[in-house]
Fold this protein.
Amino acid sequence: MAETIREAYVRRNPKSAELYPKFREVFPTGVSHDMRVTDPFPLVLAHGQGARKWDVDGNEYIDYGLGSASLLLGHAHPAVVQALISAAPQGSHFGQPVATELEWGERVCNLIPCAEKVRFVASGAEATMLAMRIARGYTGKEKIVRWESHYHGWHDYAMPGTLPPFGQPASIGIPQGAVDSVIVLPPDLHQLEHVLANDPTIAGVITEGSGASYGSVPLPPGFVTGVRELTQRYGVVMILDEVITGFRWSPGGLQQTLGIVPDLCTLAKILTGGLPGGAVAGRDEVMQVIAQTGDPEHDRFQRVSHGGTFNANPYCAATGNAALSIVATGEMQSQADRMAERLRQGLREIINRQEIPACVYGEASTFHVYFGARSIAGLDATTLKSIPGPVQNGFRQALQVRGVDLMSRCSGVLSGVHTPADIDQSLEAFDAAIQAMLAEGLVQHG
Ligand code: PMP
């Protein structure tokens, strides 16, 4: 009997296996992020360089996870590493402005079309939380419209509508008041217009620029532009969540690609060169709702308050400046997009040749494999996100044991340092992984 995918995974990773019970003693389910839970145990990583990373057992991977899509420049890019090394001995934080923060903010304003003003925060989730508060504070209204299955972080206002069934928040422990302040809609401009025309309590509309989960549920053509038109017409704040698309879709993010200017956008991941951090950027008039005027009445009762110990700390400002100076040329994005297209094309050929009911899609430097249909046309978010757990896990592990790693689900992202040789080597692994899945009955010809 040939070795199963799971047996190969266990055989190759004795150190990760040994560490897992110890992780479980310290962390609920043994992890620090829900998405890292893996059956029978997650890999423990050791180091990364460029498009590759290595686990504690010394296994090498061509990486399509890239720090949850934060590493457009690849792991440990020399300029980012050098920036961090230079900043390290200067002190980690002052809780006061630093000159590199100003440079970082100016870079954001120069690159991102809507960015007339910026506030740095400590994560993508903090960015969406602040953006929602700004929208509420600016309009004096309470409700935020969001789309089924879009991900905006894990805070209370981001949880309603993230997972099917969309009427039920994706976590317990969310106050009903938070749930009631969010309206979850399927991505349909007619429904948005209906709500905007009839509900006078809408503060803003938040949209994951790529479509849900870095584009695994693509938006209809023209959708984001349509949201811009409707939010403008009805005078509500458009928040474009560019935590994934920012600096990746183009140096100016999705908004530059589409030629639209949202009122606010949220940024993280690539913003810092792959360290912790995020930002809200937007129109001056809207962002000014955070500003203090010195008038005690205004400052205490009429403005949006915002804090955060590690906002714009010197280490992240340094790596952010290094990353954004490279990202600004657009070369990394072009290379990543070209390699993603080569990978998607190669994957489609493999799927066609092996005659399995699956399909490959994805914009910019992302790719998604859907197991269950030859096209995703007409499939809704619930269906697209319902690839059975054993298939997702089997696919990822069949690739891992062949030296390739994905992000999560059946998706991945590329960097500007992936090469044609990386793609071709990966395609061999994909081919063999699908054969292994066929052999185990995880997928069938058809
Ligand atoms: N928005 C989007 C579109 C994201 O993809 C993510 C993270 N994957 C977030 C917000 C939250 O960012 P963070 O994990 O840095 O809090």
User: Anything to note?
Assistant: The chain has 18 helices and 14 strands. The pocket of 4'-deoxy-4'-aminopyridoxal-5'-phosphate is lined by residues 68, 123-125, 128, 151-153, 208, 241, 243-244, 268, 278 (CB under 6 Å).
